[in-house]
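Input sequence (166 aa), recorded before submission:
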Amino acid sequence: MSAARPPAFDDLLAPLVGRGYALAVTMLNDPMSAEDAVQEAAIKAWRKLPALRDRSAIEPWFLSIVANQCRSVLRGRWWSVWKFPELRRDRLAQDRDESALDLDLALGRLSMEERVPLLLHFYMDMTFEQVGRVVGISMTAARSRIYRTLDRLRSDLQSEEVLDRG
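Predicted structure, token format:
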């Protein structure tokens, strides 16, 4: 009788690559750079896998590696201009509800430090503790950052609503 062998690296990582990519795109605002960052993070994760003690915590562990790789990419850029696709309100409004467009625009005005915790918590359903681990801050700081950002978004959206009515 043979002992159960541990799951292959591909089996562990495959379900997380899409989430890692979403995080990288959120941090880097560039799909090509995000792909590269996730690939580099996967290589680093493979090398560090023996150090992972709790296999059930692989998602925040891997996303932490992705976030660190993205930070390295951002530090390595010799320019600081973000590439944002040109938004044409009239074209987008045809495809989407106005309130969704307003939310997208408001989210686009947030800094990376504000957007990433929202993505992790609300889109990826991570706990405050997991968000803190990925971002590199305490659980309390992660919760505080998320709530402050939500307050700012509410305020921004209400201000736009008042301006649109006026």
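Checked by second reader. The radius of gyration is 19 Å.
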